[in-house]
Amino acid sequence: MSRLFRLCCWCWALSAMSLDRLPLALTATDEAEPDFIGQIDNVTVAQGRDAILSCTVSHLNDYTVGWVKVDTKAIQATGRRVVTLNSRVSVENIPDSPIWKLIIKSAQPDDAGYYMAQINTDPMKSQMAYLSVMEPPNIDDEATPSVRQVRENEPVELYCQATGQPVPIIAWKREDGTNISHDPCRHANDTQQKIVSSDGSLPKGHGRLCIASADRSSMGTYFCIASNGVLPSVSKRIQLVVLFPTAIRAEKPLVGAPAGVNGIGLECIVEASPLSHHLFWYFGNTSIGPNERHTMTIHKINAYTIKMTLAILNLRETDAGLYRCQAGRSEATIRLYIHNPMTTPSRSTTTKWMLDIRTTPWKERQPRTSAAHLAIIQSPVITTETYRSVTLNRHTSSQVEVLTSSNRPVQEVVYKNPSVHRSPPSSSTASDLNHQHRPTGQLMLMTSMIAILTQVISFVSC
């Protein structure tokens, strides 16, 4: 009986021990270790925007997810509790959600770098992701001079240095929109040697504009423009000043006008760098200042050219003479002369004639027995000379009258009008018309008399 009781007690003890260990075994097999699902993605944001790093963890249970900034080894957060003193950092996790987020509000360039997500297992499990903060370009004012001065025909280099993420690209542009003529940069002074590499190239973020021989057309305002795809792009004005001595010239060295004209202007062009502020006008050796009859104006044409004008009102004969415009030590002269008002010449109706005799070679004569000669002799009215040809040219604005007497000329007598500028015909009286045609009638009478005389001589010779 006692043996049976002992056997039952021993079996009950074994059963109790098995039941106590069964939940532990079942729990150990059901609880898997936490692990990351997928890889954490790198994040790129523009400066000022919120950056979110996200990881997904499975079977976390009672384990914890932490965030660490790798370069500084600063713990950002543990679980849902923020550790860092940066008020812009926060953690987000929805209960029973496997997604854990590290949020950095208004990201700045200092926030860029690698971040690590950790699970406090043994050994620890972790993943890393890189946060890139895109920074808009910024031009360094201390390394980029605003004004550069150089003498004419000397080389000059303009520098521009900018920072940003990604590294900015430097471009050059002129304020007036004209094309920029630049040359390869071959030389570097002591200041430039600090940033120029051994092969003459510049590191990223530096721009250089080289002009081998600066002239007056190179003078002006240049823009250094830095851009990297992050708005806004920035620019800086750089003023290039080319120094050269003063030069002055008169716009019109000789000026004429009639007396009594209300006003006349004398102009001089001044080119100088820097521009001269000592501008004067002289009449002879007397300085001219603003008064009731003289006004002086200055008009700026470009960065190195101005026009100075002296206006003389109510012009008089005593104003004629030599004027001098002076800029610094340079001067130019303008001579002003006074002339009488132009009068309109009266129209003349007199026609002048001149005699031009051209001799025809003897071999061109035809024999007296030719048909033409017989026709002339047998003609009842003789109007031309047998061996002379008279050509009358009368020049008018509308027509040219040519009168030819014979086809067998020995000498050609041409009456020409030498007048070049003749006014167009106007309405005139009958007496004026008769006066103009009078030379023609006299010529025809003389020609008839010569023809009759020739006929008589021919008849006698026969």
Automatic annotation (TrEMBL):
Residues 415-436 are annotated as: Disordered. Its main location: membrane. Keywords: Cell membrane, Disulfide bond, Glycoprotein, Immunoglobulin domain, Membrane, Repeat, Signal. InterPro entries: Ig-like_dom, Ig-like_dom_sf, Ig-like_fold, Ig_I-set, Ig_sub, Ig_sub2, Immunoglobulin_dom, Neural/epithelial_adhesion. It is found in: Cell membrane. Gene3D superfamilies: Immunoglobulins. Pfam families: I-set, ig, Ig_3. Residues 424-433 have a biased composition (Polar residues). CDD domains: Ig (cd00096). Residues 1-27 form the signal peptide. GO terms for cellular component: neuron projection; plasma membrane. It comes from the Eukaryota. This is Lachesin.
